[in-house]
Amino acid sequence: MSGQAVQPPILDHFVILVSHKDLLGLSNHIGDQFILAPGGNHAGGFTTNKLILLADGSYLEFIAFFDDVDPDIRRNHRWGNEKEGTIIDWAFTLPSESDFAAVQQRLKTADTGVSYTDPIPGGRTKPDGTILKWAICIPNDAQGDAAPPGSIPFWCLDRTPRARRVPYQVEPHLTQHPSGVLGVSSVSVQVPGEASKLKPVYDAIFGGAWNYEVPSGSTTGKHAVSLSSGEGAIKLVSKGSKSGQVELLPGLFLEIESF
């Protein structure tokens, strides 16, 4: 890294795959614990979403494929074969898309075999007609194939103001959840096989200790990432005004630590 300061990754969001039916009924399931923010339809017309915005500026995204999507299109989608009702992926962001080249260079220098794609345009139209634009960068393995979703974070880099995509400051009432959840304290990633093989990749992503920042700049919480061998799952511990546990979906629980 030649002694240069490394821009820490900024936690952006977590992706939770659900059926379209469950997405439409989500407020009935978690409405007593969380305030849902309207998402919208993604470019391409295959998926739609709803969000839980958190006061630290990160968010949970519930995403669903429309029922009439061509099965082949879904099968070839990055998330099309993942298990519904689980956290399937997660993303970092940076202040500017131009900052991402340094992440790519660190991975190249580390010679891990893993690389990130150059930014791929994406977007979504909000219910009020607002068009959002961003670019995503997906991790590829040594063979040039997309790495399994969730094993390595992807990146979401805004091309329209992030405040339009994540209006946690513009509409703070959307972050005042009855559950008391305020943000994400820590993230643990379980991967099948030997987690040690991915350690150099994570070292390169972070450029040092495995700590992230949050969009709000809050320093409350551990803001740490851990990696282990296991069944293949992403688990997060949230920070809140009270400790406990809340159910996001049947069988999917969110731990809360009070700070």
UniProtKB/TrEMBL annotation:
Gene3D superfamilies reported for this sequence: 2,3-Dihydroxybiphenyl 1,2-Dioxygenase, domain 1
Top-rank taxon: Eukaryota
Domain Glyoxalase-like: residue ranges: 11-194
Pfam families noted in UniProt: Glyoxalase_3
Protein name per UniProt: Glyoxalase-like domain-containing protein
Organism annotation: Penicillium cinerascens
